[in-house]
């Protein structure tokens, strides 16, 4: 079990451990299943191995939000291949659906910003599924805007967003 509805203790945000890859995968798949109308794609991906690889990747960060010993949120980011060094891409950002509207996403986003600033990043990017209206609204509230350098291609299922980390 990943989390328990109604958990109310203090929220801790910390670096994920490789031993948490299975629990992170469970949370990731549960969160993603809320916005894919036709079921989850990439059924043949070994997500536990993929998450373990992200956690162990030296230039990447995987943060997890934990409340009372239960994993309630995850964020994964790094500078994308061939991207400028002062840019970071938020690859994954999920809150346990049983814990939505409890401030976990906002706290996890703040922790990401803190790390990006510490790492000297000026710009953050992400892509969000077009059917994930909840995430789009969340990102808009945090200050993310459509990426003018990366408009969606016809038939693409993702919107591309940008965030000015330094407030510029």
Describe the structure concisely for a colleague.
The chain has 168 residues and is α+β, with helices and mostly antiparallel strands. It is 28% helix and 27% strand. It has helices at residues 21-32, 47-56, 104-118, 133-142; strands spanning 11-15, 61-67, 70-78, 87-95, 123-129, 145-146, 158-164.
Note down, in words, how this protein is organized:
The chain has 168 residues and is α+β, with helices and mostly antiparallel strands. The protein has 4 helices and 7 strands. It has helices spanning 21-32, 47-56, 104-118, 133-142, and strands spanning 11-15, 61-67, 70-78, 87-95, 123-129, 145-146, 158-164. It has a 7-stranded mixed sheet, sandwiched between helices. The longest helix is centred in the middle third of the chain and has 15 residues, at 104-118.
Relevant terms:
single chain; 168 residues; 4 helices; disordered N terminus
Helices and strands, with pairings:
Blueprint: E1 11-15, H1 21-32, H2 47-56, E2 61-67, E3 70-78, E4 87-95, H3 104-118, E5 123-129, H4 133-142, E6 145-146, E7 158-164
Parallel strand pairs: 4-5
Antiparallel strand pairs: 1-2, 2-3, 3-4, 5-7, 6-7
Helix pairs in contact: 1-2
- Give the C-alpha Rg: 15 Å
Unreliable stretches (pLDDT < 50, length at least 5) are 1-7
Helix/strand-derived class? alpha+beta
Order of helices and strands: EHHEEEHEHEE
Number of strands: 7
Strand order of the largest sheet: 1-2-3-4-5-7-6
